[in-house]
Amino acid sequence: MKNISKFKVEMSILLPIMIFFIVSVISIYSTRRLLGVEFQNLYLKQIIWYLIGIILAYSTMALGNKFLYNNAYIFYIIGVLSLVLVLFFGITVNNATCWFKIPFLGTLQPSEFMKIFLIITLARMIGDFNENNKNPDVSDELKFILKVLVIVFIPSVLTFIEPDTGAVIMYLIITFVMLFVGGFRRRWFIFTIGIGVLLLGTFFGIYFLNQDLFIDIFGTSFFYRMDRITNWSSSSGLQLRNSMIAIGSSGIMGHGINKTPIYFPEMQTDFIFAVFSSNTGFIGAISLLIVMIFFDMTLISYVNKTTNELDKYAIGGIIGVLLFQQVYNISMTIGLLPIMGITLPFISYGGSSLLSYMLLLGIVFNISNESLRFTN
Question: Tens digit of pLDDT for each residue in 349-366?
Answer without folding.
Answer: 988 899 999 999 999 988
